[in-house]
Design a protein that fits this description.
With about 290 residues, the protein is an alpha+beta fold. The chain is built from five helices and eleven strands. The protein has helices at about 5-20, 140-150, 155-160, 170-180, 195-210, and strands at about 25-30, 30-35, 45-55, 55-60, 65-70, 80, 95-100, 105-110, 115-120, 250, 260. The chain has a five-stranded mixed sheet with strand order 2-9-5-4-3, covered by helices on one side. A four-stranded antiparallel sheet has the order 1-7-8-6, with no helix packed on it. β4 (about 55-60) and β5 (about 65-70) form a beta hairpin. Bound molecules: zinc ion.
Length: about 290
């Protein structure tokens, strides 16, 4: 599942191979296109910049209106990079965007959001314009993150951390692991947590996500056994690495139903704190495949 670390890495690779290169081919299927841009300007233009913010990736083209290709990966999207003529790992018909240069072919598979807009429209964008501070970026503004968390006082901390308008780039894995390391219950309402507690969990999330940004198998702890890469994520029924209590999991209410794994002892979670409603069938959407 892509999280902010995956998109950051995709941006790094795409920047290395595409930035400054002339686009020799551009194919796109069913994009949302702003009236301010034309997609036929892209061939012949130069790739000006590649940026990521959380799970959003932006490719800027040096066209008269500075067209920006915005892809959002959600659960399913991925960018690949190939040499011209090299065989792709996924069927060509599944690519929604293909960018070609003299040396590289870069297809994007299954992004739920693909749109073309003018650079000047980005700040007004319904989602992009509202994104919280980017947790992986060098200039992460922790005070702004705290201010935005305080606007969600009634939410539980786990749900608030996943809200991309609060902090951009935290996915479920780093949320679960950061809450464990900060010794906080995923179901604690934001209003019950002190500023120091909020800072601590945000700092843990940032540390973990930055540790993972250069790639390899995602991990939050380092043990001799490579199968023990996580503190609690997906470890229900196994003993806590710190205290030996059985790790458990529970759900969170809301539209986008999410799970949290936790240690009842280390995170001081009482059974009555955990939301008990059954998961909704919409969780099993067929397009949610692995990255
Ligand atoms: Zn424990």
């Amino acid at each position: 599942m892509p999280e902010g670390d995956t998109i950051f890495r995709a941006a790094t690779v795409l920047r290395r191979v595409l930035a400054g290169q002339v686009v020799t081919g551009f194919e796109i299927t069913a994009p949302k296109v702003s009236a301010a841009v034309r997609d036929d300007e892209i061939v012949g233009s130069t790739v000006k910049a590649i940026e990521s913010n959380g799970k959003h990736l932006f490719i800027h083209f040096d066209t008269p209106h500075e067209v920006v290709l915005h892809t959002h990966m959600k659960m399913s999207g991925s960018w690949h990079v190939y040499r011209p003529g090299e065989r792709w790992w996924q069927p060509e018909k599944e690519a929604r965007v293909v960018i070609r240069t003299a040396n590289v072919v870069a297809p994007c598979f299954h992004p739920p959001i693909v749109e073309l807009l003018a650079a000047k429209e980005l700040a007004l964008h319904r989602v992009v314009g509202r994104l919280g501070p980017d947790i992986i970026g060098d200039e992460f503004d922790v005070d702004e993150a705290l201010r935005r968390l305080r606007e969600k006082q009634d939410r539980d901390i786990a749900t608030a951390l996943l809200d991309q308008s609060v902090i951009s780039g935290i996915g479920n894995v780093f949320k679960v692991e950061a809450l464990f390391l900060a010794k906080l219950s995923p179901w604690a309402p934001v209003r019950d947590l002190s500023d120091d507690q909020l800072r601590a969990v945000v700092a843990q999330a940032r540390k973990l996500i930055r540790l993972n940004r250069s790639g390899g198998e995602r991990r939050t702890r380092f043990s001799l056994d490579p199968s023990d890469r996580m503190w609690v994520d997906e470890r229900a029924g196994l003993p806590c690495h710190v205290c030996g209590t059985r790790v458990e999991h529970g759900w969170h209410p809301g539209e986008d139903v999410r799970k949290s794994w936790y240690c009842p002892h280390c995170q001081n979670v009482k059974p009555e704190d955990v939301y008990r409603a059954a998961p909704v069938p919409a969780m099993r959407m067929p397009h949610r495949e692995r990255l």
